[in-house]
Design a protein that fits this description.
heterodimer; A: alpha+beta; Alpha-Beta Plaits; eleven-stranded antiparallel beta sheet; two-stranded antiparallel ribbon; 13 helices; B: alpha/beta; seven-stranded mixed beta sheet; five-stranded parallel beta sheet; 19 strands
Chain lengths: 396, 463
């Protein structure tokens, strides 16, 4: 074996000088890649298994320091919020490092779609383990679904997912939207935000106050706790390593050192507390933005960076090789949706903005959000699969 | 971790591992593709009669059963805690198990000593020992008993009921034995995978099996012996025969055994020869031999002398048997030397071209009457110590009829305490006959060598 180029180090730049494109990870074999069950991320895995009954795995000392809320009160509030499904400890993984692409797709249904057809299709999306994240829109919007998954093989997306539903009578169109930059998800800036904007939590205090004022299951203190943890200086500060050690028997300092490396240096994972907006009766307004075809790539990236500075957005995806260029969303009733739409249309490069409203999220990065199987984390990895082969067997 | 002898509290508690009144399945998932879901589903599907408590902090219900966030939330007595969650969660679960006074913990989870986390495994083991909570595993597939419709683990089938206690360090080989049991009616009293055997060791299961009234033979698959002293003591104490197969003695096998069940084998294979011999156990070298000998020792009494009479309708099976008996150091004796009277009497059951030598060839035309008569004569002769029958399926052989006749004879002569084995070499009807014979307690085999090996093992047990 010749030289190895380690992802997450200056060797990646060296790679690009040699090969003129970015290194693409290949699962856990690529130098620098950290597998989801590796020792470096064991802190997250322990916390993910215990926070439901042991919220003290979260950094309650940080909460006390920043908000004055005593650990015991924070603990009780987190327990209650979990039981009421208001939040979930989740992670975003830098899947491109592991060799996956993020493929999303928007679906438009025909106007004469019957309620039964619509319900049946939505349940199909809910149950499909190859869809890792997905949003259902209300009827009457410009599109009906925004779904996505991380896959390694575009044919697997076509044969394994899209072909399974796109020929239904009720489907008007399906637009595949490969993600070029994952800028923000669940109000937390992601791996493709500019380096100094990485992991910024963007739910503002004003927005938190407006959500609390709705009195739908969370108050300002609750949102303070979640916000403080999401604003922790490092993703590694989300946890209490002594608590993790008590539960697991593993060495706290080593767990912390490992996890700091994974989230701050290797940047393979962003842990965060997800606000389950649907459980609060909130909706998200989605904006699917197209740019004129002659917009240069750098300009699309610049627009993405400009939109990232707007804290009103909960999600920001930059798309490539598709009809659309951006998918953004904001909380309806919390932010001024019309003002956001006007802002988007103020860009001379913007050709069209499609709008739809989502009252329900199917899954959040493999974690199911439906009542029946809440937080069951399921995803069918396509690494070793050839869905086209499976499809041909089904035909026979 | 090492023990010097079987610990009485562990042996006493093992009944809760194999016949628990209640089981908490920690990691019981709602999702049908996940192992934690399968454990609950299999328990229900196979008809477990006790109470199942799924434990899952994310679920209110699993497979229609109320789920509990933690063991402590159950609030009722729990005999067995079955753990199917990642390694880093196990410590907390064991603490909960101690707190609720569970009788025994079974940890299916992998990723302990076998991947270099020996310290964590040892710390958990020490914790369990301090609190007298027997821990089976980690890194195991499960356990069960066909008598109690109990199948706990990641095991797709139950064996047929019978006399063999199958104690295996390897889950895969345990599953292989269970599959064989279903297909070929290798009857078992109970089965257990021990995995890394961090705490509960072979010795304790040997002593439990020795007390178990359904068990007649203790069969052990070993990848490594952490506590040879305890193993020897328990085997010697046992009133029932022990069959052991020890693997991982080859150069690369030593490494494979560590990666599989964290078994360390610094000693050569000769060492295990000595240990198993000192334990007065039968050492099988190959998997098939392990199963065959277990079957024979489980169903049949020891062979008290060398006078084995073989009755067959096929000369080929006879010759294969003669050669193999001699190869194994127990050559067949001619019938006239065993019992001149029997040689004369048995003539009545064969045509003139038959051979009363030994093997006694009652010829390819032999029917049910000839077989039955020859078997009866052989059993009733006081000089005969054991009988080996063979069926060769000629066009005129009623294979199933002969098998039924063999069962009839066996039942009427069982009190004589002479072992009876059968060979049925042939196609589908022979396999059916084998199952029929085994169901009646007669070890039957597809090849002559298997049966002869088993008969020689019975002789070793009889010495």
């Amino acid at each position: 074996m010749g030289k190895s180029y380690r992802i997450g180090t200056p060797e990646a730049q060296e790679y690009m000088r040699q090969y003129r494109n970015a290194p693409k990870g290949l699962s856990s074999f690529e130098p620098g890649v950290i597998a989801s069950d590796a020792k470096e991320v064991v802190a997250f895995n322990i916390a993910k298994s215990f926070y439901q009954v042991h919220p003290e795995v979260l950094n309650l000392r940080l909460v006390e320091e920043k908000t004055g809320i005593k650990p015991e009160e924070a603990r009780k509030r987190l327990l209650r919020m979990y039981q009421e499904k208001r939040f979930m400890l989740v992670k975003n993984s830098a899947v491109n490092v592991s060799g996956f692409a993020l493929y999303y797709w928007a679906v438009k249904l025909r106007e004469d779609t019957t309620p039964e057809e619509r319900k049946d299709l939505m349940e199909w999306f809910q149950e499909n383990d190859q869809i890792c994240t997905g949003y259902m829109m209300e009827e009457g919007g410009d599109f009906a679904v925004w779904n996505g998954n991380h896959m390694r093989n575009l044919d697997n997306l076509i044969y394994g997912v899209l072909d399974k539903f796109r020929f239904r009578r009720c489907v008007e169109w399906v637009h595949v939207c490969p993600i070029r930059r994952l800028l923000r998800e669940s109000s937390v800036n992601q791996f493709d935000a500019l380096p100094d904007r990485y992991r910024r939590y963007t739910l503002t205090e004003e927005a938190e106050k407006r959500i609390a004022a709705l009195k739908r299951g969370v108050d300002e203190k609750d949102l303070d706790i979640l916000g403080t943890l999401n604003r922790a200086p490092s993703g590694a500060d989300l946890f209490d390593y002594e608590a993790l050690a008590r539960l697991s028997g593993l060495e706290p300092k080593e767990m912390e050192k490992d996890f700091r490396y994974a989230v701050d240096e290797a940047r393979v994972m962003i842990p965060m507390l997800y606000l389950n907006y649907a459980s609060l009766g909130l909706k998200q307004r989605f904006y699917l933005v197209s740019l004129f075809e002659n917009t240069p790539t750098f300009r699309e990236d610049e627009i993405g960076d400009e939109l990232e500075k707007d804290d009103r957005f909960v999600n920001i995806f930059e798309i490539s090789d598709a009809h659309h260029a951006f998918l953004l969303s904001s909380y309806e009733g919390i932010e001024d949706g019309e003002d956001i739409r006007r802002k988007l249309l103020s860009y001379g490069e913007v050709k069209e903005v499609l709008v739809a409203t989502s009252p329900r999220q199917f899954r959040r990065w493999t974690c199911r959000l439906d009542e029946r199987l809440y937080e069951e984390c399921v995803f069918t990895d396509d690494v070793l699969l050839d869905r086209s082969e499976e499809a041909s067997h089904e035909d026979q | 971790m090492k023990i010097s002898e079987a610990r009485p509290y562990v042996v006493e508690r093992l009944k809760y591992a194999l016949n628990p009144r209640s089981i908490a399945v920690v990691g019981a998932s709602r999702y049908p593709t996940k192992v934690g879901n399968k454990v609950v589903a299999e328990l229900m599907e196979w008809g477990y009669k006790g109470t199942i408590y799924p434990v899952n902090p994310r679920a209110k219900e699993v497979l229609g059963l109320q789920a509990y966030p933690t063991l402590r939330d159950i609030g009722k007595e729990v005999d067995l805690v079955f753990v199917a969650v990642p390694a880093h969660l196990v410590r907390s679960i064991l603490e909960d198990a101690v707190a609720i006074k569970a009788k025994v913990a079974v940890v299916a989870t992998s990723a302990f000593k076998e991947i270099g986390r020996g310290d964590l495994q040892n710390a958990l083991t020490e914790y369990c020992r301090r609190n007298e909570l027997p821990l089976i595993g980690p890194n195991l597939v499960g356990m069960g008993s066909p008598y109690d419709h109990f199948n706990c683990g990641f095991i797709p089938y139950l064996p047929v009921p019978g006399p063999i206690a199958m104690i295996s360090q390897s889950g895969a080989n345990l599953l292989a034995a269970l599959g064989t049991s279903q297909e070929e009616h290798l009857g078992m009293s109970f089965f257990v995978g021990l995995g890394n055997k961090a705490d509960v060791d072979f010795a304790e299961f040997i002593e439990y099996a020795d007390q178990d009234p359904r068990t007649k033979v203790i069969s052990i698959y070993i990848e490594g012996l952490d506590s040879p002293e305890a193993f020897v003591k328990s085997c010697r104490k046992a009133r029932k025969p022990v069959v052991a197969i020890k693997v991982g003695g080859s150069k690369i096998g030593v490494k494979a055994a560590f990666a599989h069940t964290a078994s360390e084998n610094p000693e050569g294979d000769d060492y295990y020869d000595r240990v198993i011999s000192e334990a007065r156990a039968y050492r099988a070298r190959m998997w098939q031999e392990f199963l065959d000998v277990s079957l024979a020792l489980g169903y049949q009494p020891p062979l008290k002398g060398d006078n084995v009479v073989m009755i067959t309708n096929g000369g080929g099976a006879a010759l294969l048997s003669c050669d193999h008996f001699e190869r194994l150091g127990m050559p067949l004796r001619e019938l006239k030397d065993i019992s001149p009277l029997l040689a004369a009497k048995i003539r009545a059951y064969m045509p003139m071209f038959g051979s009363p030598l030994n093997p006694v060839d009652i010829s390819g035309t032999a029917g049910v009457i000839q077989y039955k008569g020859a078997f009866q004569q052989a059993f009733r002769d006081p000089n005969v110590d054991g009988v080996l029958g063979a069926i060769c399926p000629t066009a005129v052989t009623d294979v199933i009829g002969v098998a039924k006749a063999a069962v009839e004879v066996y039942r009427s002569t069982r009190e004589l305490g002479k072992p009876f084995l059968m060979i049925c070499q042939g196609g589908g009807e022979c396999r059916e006959a084998i199952r029929l014979l085994r169901d009646a307690g007669i070890p039957a085999y597809l090849t002559a060598e298997q049966a002869v090996t088993a008969m020689v093992a019975l002789r070793k047990a009889g010495k």
